[in-house]
Design goal:
The chain is an alpha/beta fold. It has 2 domains: 2-206, 3-Layer(aba) Sandwich (Rossmann fold); 212-270, no CATH class. It has helices at residues 32-40, 62-66, 83-91, 100-107, 122-134, 152-169, 180-186, 204-211, 233-242, 258-270, and strands at residues 2-3, 6-7, 21-25, 68-70, 140-144, 172-176, 189-194, 197-202, 215-221, 224-230, 248-255. The chain has a 6-stranded mixed sheet with strand order 4-5-6-3-7-8, with helices on both faces. Bound molecules: adenosine-5'-triphosphate (ATP). Adenosine-5'-triphosphate (ATP) binds next to α1. Keywords: Antibiotic resistance, ATP-binding, Nucleotide-binding, Transport. Residues 1-220 form the ABC transporter domain. It is found in: Cell membrane.
Length: 274
């Protein structure tokens, strides 16, 4: 993808399977929004091939668009509407919308059904954004930094909602986030984008193993603290526990975190390493 004379995406090539939740990670300016906007049909690509629900987004019609869910911060324009009325109204634009009461329960807004949008809390408004994004029962949902600004409780509730959408509705989700714990918790697969290229593609575990297969093992024995890195954790721990001598205490096994992996992958790309 090129803006003017500047190429911002290079050979970005990936497939998302039905029912999969894929997280797109990357530093600021990596090209996440550009990628998502091309897939949503909001931005015309300068080159390459794209198919979303079997259709080129540059030529997607109304029916195609009805299969997509896009979560925008749209509530601000609707502050005088009551929650139930707004969802009922928006649902009429789709061929097979959610039943409004079912949707309110799904997103956890049943108690706020008759409240005006302008009186909802930040977390409740974000749930309403999601409800608006999914009112047409999309097959594919785009979530762009969905929990930015959430408190821990609202974040947890939002994660449960996304899990329900994937498990119960079989919705396919493409999510961007800067929250690595969120990606690790939600995503079946993680794509890391750096400088417009995909530098990693796999589950959180697979990515961690690709960077460093080792795990760090810590323990205390006879009042002394020990740290060791090992490839074969189970073998090492079994040996440790069956060794004669003082008992092992405070045993901890720490795998490479997604943050370690992410930093290593992005740094490698930025340093121009193969
Ligand atoms: N309309 C535009 N015209 C020119 N350049 C643009 C335009 N939109 C984005 N860019 C450039 O394209 C690159 C990718 O931007 P993009 O917004 O896709 O990144 P991002 O990964 O979503 O970043 P962030 O995490 O900051 O949201 C950046 O270098 C940005 O400056």
């Amino acid at each position: 993808m090129r803006y003017g004379t500047k190429d911002v995406l290079h050979g970005v090539d990936f497939d998302v399977r039905v029912g999969e939740l894929v997280a797109l990670l990357g530093p600021n300016g990596a090209g996440k929004s550009t990628t998502i906007e091309i897939l949503e049909g909001f931005r015309t690509r300068s080159d390459g091939e794209v198919a979303v629900l079997g259709v080129d987004p540059a030529h997607g019609d109304e029916r195609w668009r009805a299969g997509l869910g896009v979560v925008l911060q749209s509530w601000r324009d609707h502050s005088k509407w009551k929650v139930r009325e707004l969802l009922g109204h928006l649902g009429r634009y789709y061929p097979e919308p959610f039943d409004v009461d079912e949707l309110l329960v799904l997103v956890g807004l049943a108690e706020q059904a008759n409240q005006r949008v302008g009186t909802l809390s930040g977390g409740q408004r974000r749930r309403l954004d999601v409800a608006i994004g999914i009112v047409g029962r999309p097959r594919l949902l785009f979530l762009d930094e969905p929990t930015a600004g959430f408190d821990p409780q609202a974040r947890r509730e939002f994660h449960e909602l996304v899990h329900r959408l994937v498990d119960v509705e079989r919705t396919t989700v493409l999510l961007t986030t800067h929250d690595l714990a969120e990606a690790e918790k939600l995503a079946d697969r993680i794509l890391i984008l750096a400088e417009g290229r995909i530098v990693a593609d796999g589950s959180a575990d697979e990515l961690a193993r690709a960077v460093a297969g080792k795990a760090e093992i810590r323990w205390t024995r006879d009042g002394e603290r020990f740290v060791h890195t090992a490839d074969e954790v189970e073998d090492f721990v079994r040996g440790l526990l069956t060794e004669p001598g003082e008992p092992v205490r405070d045993l901890e096994v720490r795998r490479t975190s997604l943050e370690d992996t992410y930093m290593a992958m992005v740094h490698k790309q930025e340093a121009g390493e193969p």
